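Field log, afternoon session.

UNIT: design team B
ACTIVITY: writing a sequence onto a fixed backbone
BACKBONE:
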Protein backbone atom coordinates (compact mmCIF):
# COMPACT_ATOMS: atom_id res chain seq x y z
CA UNK A 1 0.00 0.00 0.00
CA UNK A 2 1.18 3.57 -0.61
CA UNK A 3 2.38 5.43 2.54
CA UNK A 4 0.15 8.44 1.96
CA UNK A 5 -3.34 8.40 0.60
CA UNK A 6 -3.98 9.36 -3.03
CA UNK A 7 -6.40 12.09 -4.04
CA UNK A 8 -9.96 11.25 -5.06
CA UNK A 9 -9.07 12.29 -8.60
CA UNK A 10 -6.12 9.90 -8.72
CA UNK A 11 -8.20 7.06 -7.30
CA UNK A 12 -11.00 7.48 -9.80
CA UNK A 13 -8.66 7.79 -12.74
CA UNK A 14 -7.01 4.55 -11.54
CA UNK A 15 -10.43 2.88 -11.22
CA UNK A 16 -11.67 4.12 -14.58
CA UNK A 17 -8.55 2.76 -16.17
CA UNK A 18 -9.26 -0.65 -14.67
CA UNK A 19 -12.94 -0.40 -15.62
CA UNK A 20 -11.99 0.22 -19.27
CA UNK A 21 -10.53 -3.30 -19.33
CA UNK A 22 -13.94 -4.82 -18.41
CA UNK A 23 -16.25 -5.91 -21.22
CA UNK A 24 -19.31 -4.25 -19.62
CA UNK A 25 -21.10 -7.25 -21.25
CA UNK A 26 -20.41 -5.86 -24.74
CA UNK A 27 -20.31 -8.83 -27.18
CA UNK A 28 -20.64 -11.23 -24.26
CA UNK A 29 -22.51 -14.43 -25.15
CA UNK A 30 -20.95 -16.58 -22.45
CA UNK A 31 -22.24 -15.17 -19.17
CA UNK A 32 -25.21 -16.14 -17.03
CA UNK A 33 -25.01 -12.77 -15.27
CA UNK A 34 -25.94 -9.42 -16.77
CA UNK A 35 -26.34 -5.73 -15.95
CA UNK A 36 -28.33 -5.45 -12.73
CA UNK A 37 -31.59 -3.52 -13.04
CA UNK A 38 -31.21 0.18 -12.10
CA UNK A 39 -33.70 -0.24 -9.26
CA UNK A 40 -31.53 -3.00 -7.82
CA UNK A 41 -28.44 -0.78 -8.05
CA UNK A 42 -30.18 2.08 -6.20
CA UNK A 43 -31.45 -0.24 -3.48
CA UNK A 44 -28.00 -1.80 -3.15
CA UNK A 45 -26.45 1.62 -2.57
CA UNK A 46 -29.05 2.48 0.06
CA UNK A 47 -28.18 -0.56 2.18
CA UNK A 48 -24.44 -0.62 1.43
CA UNK A 49 -23.41 -0.92 5.11
CA UNK A 50 -26.04 -3.47 6.20
CA UNK A 51 -24.61 -6.74 7.56
CA UNK A 52 -27.00 -9.68 7.56
CA UNK A 53 -24.42 -11.59 9.62
CA UNK A 54 -25.51 -9.56 12.65
CA UNK A 55 -29.26 -9.41 12.16
CA UNK A 56 -30.11 -7.62 15.40
CA UNK A 57 -28.30 -4.50 14.22
CA UNK A 58 -30.00 -4.46 10.83
CA UNK A 59 -33.63 -5.29 11.45
CA UNK A 60 -34.74 -3.49 8.30
CA UNK A 61 -32.38 -5.37 6.00
CA UNK A 62 -33.36 -8.59 7.78
CA UNK A 63 -37.03 -7.87 7.03
CA UNK A 64 -36.14 -7.37 3.35
CA UNK A 65 -34.35 -10.73 3.30
CA UNK A 66 -37.42 -12.42 4.78
CA UNK A 67 -39.61 -10.72 2.21
CA UNK A 68 -37.39 -12.02 -0.61
CA UNK A 69 -37.58 -15.55 0.83
CA UNK A 70 -41.37 -15.20 1.03
CA UNK A 71 -41.64 -13.98 -2.58
CA UNK A 72 -39.32 -16.71 -3.83
CA UNK A 73 -41.35 -19.28 -1.87
CA UNK A 74 -44.46 -18.06 -3.66
CA UNK A 75 -42.72 -18.15 -7.05
CA UNK A 76 -41.51 -21.70 -6.41
CA UNK A 77 -44.85 -22.99 -5.04
CA UNK A 78 -43.79 -23.61 -1.49
CA UNK A 79 -46.55 -25.49 0.33
CA UNK A 80 -48.74 -23.91 3.03
CA UNK A 81 -48.70 -25.28 6.52
CA UNK A 82 -51.19 -25.02 9.35
CA UNK A 83 -49.46 -23.83 12.49
CA UNK A 84 -50.49 -25.66 15.71
CA UNK A 85 -52.28 -22.64 17.21
CA UNK A 86 -54.85 -23.07 14.47
CA UNK A 87 -53.75 -20.05 12.49
CA UNK A 88 -52.74 -20.65 8.92
CA UNK A 89 -49.26 -19.72 7.80
CA UNK A 90 -48.97 -18.35 4.27
CA UNK A 91 -46.06 -20.58 3.43
CA UNK A 92 -43.78 -22.98 5.21
CA UNK A 93 -40.86 -22.06 3.04
CA UNK A 94 -37.69 -21.12 4.80
CA UNK A 95 -34.28 -20.25 3.56
CA UNK A 96 -31.81 -17.44 3.26
CA UNK A 97 -29.93 -15.34 0.77
CA UNK A 98 -26.58 -16.78 -0.23
CA UNK A 99 -23.73 -15.45 -2.33
CA UNK A 100 -24.88 -17.51 -5.33
CA UNK A 101 -25.43 -20.99 -6.71
CA UNK A 102 -22.15 -22.37 -5.38
CA UNK A 103 -22.91 -21.53 -1.76
CA UNK A 104 -26.51 -22.71 -2.13
CA UNK A 105 -25.40 -26.08 -3.51
CA UNK A 106 -22.78 -26.52 -0.79
CA UNK A 107 -25.26 -25.69 1.96
CA UNK A 108 -28.00 -27.92 0.54
CA UNK A 109 -25.65 -30.91 0.62
CA UNK A 110 -24.34 -29.89 4.06
CA UNK A 111 -27.93 -29.89 5.29
CA UNK A 112 -28.49 -33.40 3.89
CA UNK A 113 -25.32 -34.61 5.57
CA UNK A 114 -26.17 -33.04 8.93
CA UNK A 115 -29.66 -34.51 8.92
CA UNK A 116 -28.31 -37.92 8.00
CA UNK A 117 -25.54 -37.90 10.62
CA UNK A 118 -28.05 -36.68 13.21
CA UNK A 119 -29.37 -40.23 12.96
CA UNK A 120 -32.37 -39.79 10.70
CA UNK A 121 -31.12 -42.74 8.61
CA UNK A 122 -28.91 -45.75 9.24
CA UNK A 123 -25.83 -45.43 7.06
CA UNK A 124 -22.84 -47.72 6.70
CA UNK A 125 -19.69 -46.15 5.26
CA UNK A 126 -19.06 -42.96 3.29
CA UNK A 127 -22.30 -41.11 2.46
CA UNK A 128 -22.90 -40.26 -1.18
CA UNK A 129 -25.10 -38.12 -3.39
CA UNK A 130 -26.08 -38.79 -7.00
CA UNK A 131 -25.89 -35.83 -9.38
CA UNK A 132 -26.20 -35.53 -13.17
CA UNK A 133 -23.00 -35.47 -15.21
CA UNK A 134 -24.14 -32.03 -16.38
CA UNK A 135 -24.02 -30.58 -12.85
CA UNK A 136 -22.19 -27.30 -12.33
CA UNK A 137 -18.58 -27.48 -11.12
CA UNK A 138 -19.70 -26.22 -7.71
CA UNK A 139 -20.39 -29.90 -6.99
CA UNK A 140 -16.65 -30.59 -7.46
CA UNK A 141 -16.18 -28.22 -4.51
CA UNK A 142 -18.90 -30.10 -2.60
CA UNK A 143 -17.03 -33.36 -3.26
CA UNK A 144 -13.77 -31.80 -2.13
CA UNK A 145 -14.92 -30.26 1.12
CA UNK A 146 -17.77 -32.39 2.43
CA UNK A 147 -16.10 -35.79 2.90
CA UNK A 148 -18.78 -37.47 0.84
CA UNK A 149 -18.76 -39.32 -2.47
CA UNK A 150 -20.31 -37.50 -5.41
CA UNK A 151 -21.61 -40.00 -8.00
CA UNK A 152 -22.33 -38.77 -11.49
CA UNK A 153 -25.20 -40.21 -13.48
CA UNK A 154 -24.96 -40.21 -17.27
CA UNK A 155 -27.19 -38.13 -19.54
CA UNK A 156 -29.72 -39.23 -22.14
CA UNK A 157 -29.58 -38.14 -25.79
CA UNK A 158 -31.34 -34.86 -24.87
CA UNK A 159 -28.77 -33.99 -22.16
CA UNK A 160 -31.19 -34.74 -19.31
CA UNK A 161 -30.09 -37.03 -16.50
CA UNK A 162 -30.67 -40.69 -17.35
CA UNK A 163 -33.03 -42.12 -14.73
CA UNK A 164 -31.78 -45.71 -15.00
CA UNK A 165 -28.24 -44.44 -14.45
CA UNK A 166 -29.44 -42.55 -11.33
CA UNK A 167 -31.15 -45.68 -10.00
CA UNK A 168 -28.09 -47.82 -10.61
CA UNK A 169 -25.94 -45.47 -8.49
CA UNK A 170 -28.21 -45.41 -5.42
CA UNK A 171 -27.18 -47.64 -2.52
CA UNK A 172 -27.54 -47.84 1.27
CA UNK A 173 -25.16 -44.87 1.71
CA UNK A 174 -27.01 -42.50 -0.62
CA UNK A 175 -28.28 -39.38 1.16
CA UNK A 176 -29.85 -37.57 -1.71
CA UNK A 177 -30.18 -36.75 -5.37
CA UNK A 178 -29.60 -33.55 -7.30
CA UNK A 179 -31.59 -32.44 -10.34
CA UNK A 180 -30.71 -29.44 -12.50
CA UNK A 181 -33.41 -27.07 -13.71
CA UNK A 182 -31.50 -25.24 -16.40
CA UNK A 183 -28.09 -26.82 -16.67
CA UNK A 184 -25.15 -24.54 -17.26
CA UNK A 185 -24.00 -25.91 -20.59
CA UNK A 186 -27.21 -26.81 -22.41
CA UNK A 187 -30.00 -25.02 -20.51
CA UNK A 188 -31.75 -28.38 -20.22
CA UNK A 189 -34.12 -29.35 -17.40
CA UNK A 190 -33.80 -32.79 -15.78
CA UNK A 191 -36.99 -34.88 -15.37
CA UNK A 192 -37.61 -33.50 -11.87
CA UNK A 193 -40.99 -35.26 -11.42
CA UNK A 194 -39.37 -38.65 -12.12
CA UNK A 195 -36.39 -37.85 -9.89
CA UNK A 196 -38.93 -36.99 -7.21
CA UNK A 197 -40.55 -40.42 -7.52
CA UNK A 198 -37.16 -42.09 -7.16
CA UNK A 199 -36.30 -39.88 -4.18
CA UNK A 200 -39.59 -40.61 -2.40
CA UNK A 201 -39.39 -44.37 -3.08
CA UNK A 202 -35.87 -44.51 -1.63
CA UNK A 203 -36.45 -41.94 1.15
CA UNK A 204 -33.81 -39.58 -0.22
CA UNK A 205 -33.49 -35.82 -0.24
CA UNK A 206 -33.84 -34.10 -3.61
CA UNK A 207 -32.03 -30.81 -4.17
CA UNK A 208 -32.82 -28.81 -7.31
CA UNK A 209 -30.14 -26.54 -8.74
CA UNK A 210 -32.24 -23.85 -10.41
CA UNK A 211 -29.51 -21.22 -10.02
CA UNK A 212 -30.05 -20.18 -13.63
CA UNK A 213 -33.46 -21.65 -14.47
CA UNK A 214 -35.26 -20.42 -11.35
CA UNK A 215 -35.93 -17.00 -12.86
CA UNK A 216 -36.57 -18.46 -16.33
CA UNK A 217 -38.75 -21.58 -16.14
CA UNK A 218 -41.72 -20.03 -14.27
CA UNK A 219 -41.95 -17.40 -17.03
CA UNK A 220 -41.76 -19.69 -20.06
CA UNK A 221 -44.93 -20.31 -22.06
CA UNK A 222 -44.99 -23.98 -21.05
CA UNK A 223 -43.09 -24.31 -17.77
CA UNK A 224 -41.92 -27.81 -16.84
CA UNK A 225 -42.35 -29.03 -13.25
CA UNK A 226 -39.22 -28.30 -11.23
CA UNK A 227 -40.15 -26.64 -7.94
CA UNK A 228 -41.88 -27.41 -4.60
CA UNK A 229 -45.04 -28.41 -6.49
CA UNK A 230 -43.14 -31.64 -7.13
CA UNK A 231 -43.62 -33.53 -3.85
CA UNK A 232 -40.11 -35.00 -3.45
CA UNK A 233 -38.23 -31.71 -3.84
CA UNK A 234 -36.61 -30.82 -0.52
CA UNK A 235 -34.51 -27.77 -1.44
CA UNK A 236 -33.97 -25.34 -4.32
CA UNK A 237 -31.09 -23.05 -5.30
CA UNK A 238 -32.15 -19.97 -7.27
CA UNK A 239 -29.93 -16.99 -8.15
CA UNK A 240 -31.36 -13.47 -8.30
CA UNK A 241 -27.98 -12.27 -9.63
CA UNK A 242 -28.47 -14.24 -12.85
CA UNK A 243 -31.85 -13.92 -14.61
CA UNK A 244 -33.30 -12.21 -11.51
CA UNK A 245 -31.51 -8.99 -12.56
CA UNK A 246 -30.27 -8.25 -9.05
CA UNK A 247 -26.78 -7.18 -8.01
CA UNK A 248 -23.89 -9.57 -7.33
CA UNK A 249 -23.76 -11.40 -4.88
CA UNK A 250 -27.40 -12.54 -4.75
CA UNK A 251 -28.22 -16.21 -4.47
CA UNK A 252 -30.94 -17.94 -2.50
CA UNK A 253 -31.45 -21.34 -0.93
CA UNK A 254 -34.96 -22.45 -0.02
CA UNK A 255 -36.01 -25.51 1.97
CA UNK A 256 -39.36 -27.25 2.09
CA UNK A 257 -38.97 -27.94 5.80
CA UNK A 258 -37.55 -25.83 8.64
CA UNK A 259 -35.68 -28.91 9.95
CA UNK A 260 -33.28 -28.55 7.02
CA UNK A 261 -32.42 -24.98 7.98
CA UNK A 262 -32.13 -25.98 11.64
CA UNK A 263 -29.57 -28.61 10.72
CA UNK A 264 -27.24 -25.85 9.51
CA UNK A 265 -27.27 -23.85 12.75
CA UNK A 266 -24.17 -22.93 14.71
CA UNK A 267 -24.18 -20.84 17.89
CA UNK A 268 -22.95 -17.26 17.63
CA UNK A 269 -22.14 -16.33 21.24
CA UNK A 270 -21.11 -12.68 20.85
CA UNK A 271 -23.53 -11.44 18.19
CA UNK A 272 -26.98 -9.91 18.53
CA UNK A 273 -28.50 -13.22 17.44
CA UNK A 274 -27.95 -16.59 19.12
CA UNK A 275 -27.34 -18.70 16.03
CA UNK A 276 -26.47 -18.57 12.36
CA UNK A 277 -27.33 -21.08 9.66
CA UNK A 278 -25.46 -19.43 6.80
CA UNK A 279 -22.11 -20.48 5.35
CA UNK A 280 -20.58 -17.02 5.34
CA UNK A 281 -20.64 -14.89 8.49
CA UNK A 282 -20.82 -11.28 7.37
CA UNK A 283 -23.40 -11.06 4.58
CA UNK A 284 -24.52 -8.30 2.26
CA UNK A 285 -27.75 -6.60 3.31
CA UNK A 286 -27.37 -4.55 0.14
CA UNK A 287 -28.00 -7.68 -1.97
CA UNK A 288 -31.18 -8.41 -0.03
CA UNK A 289 -32.41 -4.86 -0.61
CA UNK A 290 -31.48 -5.01 -4.30
CA UNK A 291 -33.27 -8.33 -4.84
CA UNK A 292 -36.34 -7.24 -2.90
CA UNK A 293 -36.55 -3.99 -4.84
CA UNK A 294 -36.15 -5.49 -8.31
CA UNK A 295 -38.60 -8.35 -7.63
CA UNK A 296 -41.25 -5.91 -6.42
CA UNK A 297 -40.55 -3.45 -9.24
CA UNK A 298 -40.72 -5.97 -12.08
CA UNK A 299 -43.29 -8.37 -10.65
CA UNK A 300 -44.23 -11.51 -12.59
CA UNK A 301 -45.09 -9.41 -15.62
CA UNK A 302 -41.65 -7.79 -15.79
CA UNK A 303 -39.84 -11.12 -15.49
CA UNK A 304 -42.15 -12.66 -18.09
CA UNK A 305 -41.17 -9.86 -20.51
CA UNK A 306 -37.50 -10.37 -19.71
CA UNK A 307 -37.68 -14.11 -20.41
CA UNK A 308 -39.77 -13.51 -23.54
CA UNK A 309 -37.08 -11.13 -24.83
CA UNK A 310 -34.26 -13.59 -24.14
CA UNK A 311 -36.23 -16.38 -25.84
CA UNK A 312 -36.72 -14.13 -28.89
CA UNK A 313 -32.95 -13.67 -29.05
CA UNK A 314 -32.55 -17.43 -28.72
CA UNK A 315 -34.97 -18.18 -31.58
CA UNK A 316 -33.29 -15.55 -33.74
CA UNK A 317 -29.88 -17.07 -33.11
CA UNK A 318 -31.04 -20.60 -33.97
CA UNK A 319 -32.85 -19.42 -37.13
CA UNK A 320 -29.85 -17.41 -38.38
CA UNK A 321 -27.40 -20.20 -37.52
CA UNK A 322 -29.53 -22.71 -39.45
CA UNK A 323 -29.42 -20.40 -42.48
CA UNK A 324 -25.63 -20.78 -42.56
CA UNK A 325 -25.82 -24.53 -41.99
CA UNK A 326 -25.32 -24.94 -38.23
CA UNK A 327 -27.74 -26.91 -36.05
CA UNK A 328 -28.17 -26.74 -32.28
CA UNK A 329 -27.34 -29.90 -30.31
CA UNK A 330 -30.86 -29.76 -28.88
CA UNK A 331 -33.85 -27.49 -29.46
CA UNK A 332 -33.27 -24.77 -26.83
CA UNK A 333 -35.36 -25.20 -23.71
CA UNK A 334 -34.35 -21.83 -22.36
CA UNK A 335 -31.98 -19.04 -23.38
CA UNK A 336 -28.92 -21.24 -23.80
CA UNK A 337 -27.86 -22.61 -27.18
CA UNK A 338 -25.25 -25.30 -27.84
CA UNK A 339 -24.33 -24.97 -31.50
CA UNK A 340 -22.63 -27.70 -33.51
CA UNK A 341 -19.77 -26.11 -35.47
CA UNK A 342 -16.60 -27.65 -36.87
CA UNK A 343 -13.56 -27.19 -34.63
CA UNK A 344 -15.36 -25.24 -31.88
CA UNK A 345 -12.21 -24.43 -29.89
CA UNK A 346 -10.60 -22.70 -32.86
CA UNK A 347 -13.87 -20.96 -33.76
CA UNK A 348 -14.12 -19.63 -30.24
CA UNK A 349 -10.55 -18.34 -30.34
CA UNK A 350 -11.07 -16.62 -33.72
CA UNK A 351 -14.40 -15.08 -32.72
CA UNK A 352 -12.68 -13.43 -29.79
CA UNK A 353 -9.45 -12.43 -31.50
CA UNK A 354 -10.98 -11.09 -34.70
CA UNK A 355 -14.36 -9.78 -33.61
CA UNK A 356 -14.30 -9.51 -29.82
CA UNK A 357 -17.10 -12.04 -29.20
CA UNK A 358 -16.94 -13.90 -25.89
CA UNK A 359 -18.39 -17.38 -26.28
CA UNK A 360 -17.70 -20.61 -24.44
CA UNK A 361 -17.59 -24.32 -25.20
CA UNK A 362 -19.55 -27.28 -23.81
CA UNK A 363 -17.48 -30.15 -22.43
CA UNK A 364 -19.03 -33.27 -24.03
CA UNK A 365 -19.64 -33.05 -26.90
CA UNK A 366 -17.69 -29.91 -27.70
CA UNK A 367 -20.00 -27.26 -29.16
CA UNK A 368 -20.27 -23.46 -29.06
CA UNK A 369 -22.16 -22.49 -25.92
CA UNK A 370 -24.13 -19.26 -26.22
CA UNK A 371 -26.18 -17.67 -23.45
CA UNK A 372 -28.69 -15.06 -24.65
CA UNK A 373 -29.07 -12.47 -21.93
CA UNK A 374 -30.87 -9.13 -21.51
CA UNK A 375 -27.65 -7.28 -22.41
CA UNK A 376 -27.73 -8.79 -25.95
CA UNK A 377 -29.75 -7.33 -28.84
CA UNK A 378 -31.31 -8.70 -32.03
CA UNK A 379 -28.72 -6.68 -34.02
CA UNK A 380 -25.95 -8.33 -31.96
CA UNK A 381 -27.25 -11.73 -33.00
CA UNK A 382 -27.24 -10.81 -36.69
CA UNK A 383 -23.69 -9.48 -36.46
CA UNK A 384 -22.56 -12.48 -34.48
CA UNK A 385 -23.89 -14.96 -37.05
CA UNK A 386 -22.22 -13.00 -39.88
CA UNK A 387 -18.92 -13.15 -38.00
CA UNK A 388 -19.44 -16.84 -37.25
CA UNK A 389 -19.95 -17.42 -40.99
CA UNK A 390 -16.69 -15.62 -41.84
CA UNK A 391 -14.70 -17.48 -39.18
CA UNK A 392 -16.01 -20.94 -40.05
CA UNK A 393 -15.59 -20.37 -43.79
CA UNK A 394 -11.89 -19.73 -43.28
CA UNK A 395 -11.19 -22.63 -40.94
N1 LIG B 1 -25.55 -23.86 -10.71
C1 LIG B 1 -25.76 -23.59 -12.00
C2 LIG B 1 -26.77 -24.38 -12.77
C3 LIG B 1 -25.04 -22.56 -12.63
O1 LIG B 1 -25.24 -22.33 -13.94
C4 LIG B 1 -24.11 -21.83 -11.87
C5 LIG B 1 -23.32 -20.76 -12.50
O2 LIG B 1 -23.41 -20.48 -13.66
C6 LIG B 1 -23.94 -22.15 -10.51
C7 LIG B 1 -24.68 -23.17 -9.96
C8 LIG B 1 -22.94 -21.39 -9.66
O3 LIG B 1 -23.40 -20.11 -9.40
P1 LIG B 1 -22.45 -18.99 -8.79
O4 LIG B 1 -21.37 -18.76 -9.80
O5 LIG B 1 -23.36 -17.84 -8.60
O6 LIG B 1 -21.90 -19.51 -7.51
Amino acid sequence: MNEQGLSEKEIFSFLENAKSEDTDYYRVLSSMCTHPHKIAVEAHRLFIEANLGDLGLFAGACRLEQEVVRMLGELLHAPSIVVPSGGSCESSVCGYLTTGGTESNIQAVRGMKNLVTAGKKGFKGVPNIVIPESAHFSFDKVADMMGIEVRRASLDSEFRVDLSSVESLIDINTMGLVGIAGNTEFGQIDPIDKLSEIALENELFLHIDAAFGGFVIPFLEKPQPFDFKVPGVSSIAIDPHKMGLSTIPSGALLFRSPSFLDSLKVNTPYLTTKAQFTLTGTRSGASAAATCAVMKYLGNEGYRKNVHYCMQLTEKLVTEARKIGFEPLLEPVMNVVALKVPNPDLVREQLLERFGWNVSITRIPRALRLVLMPHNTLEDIELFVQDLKKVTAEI
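LOG NOTE: The mean pLDDT is 94.
NEXT ACTIVITY: expression trials, pending approval
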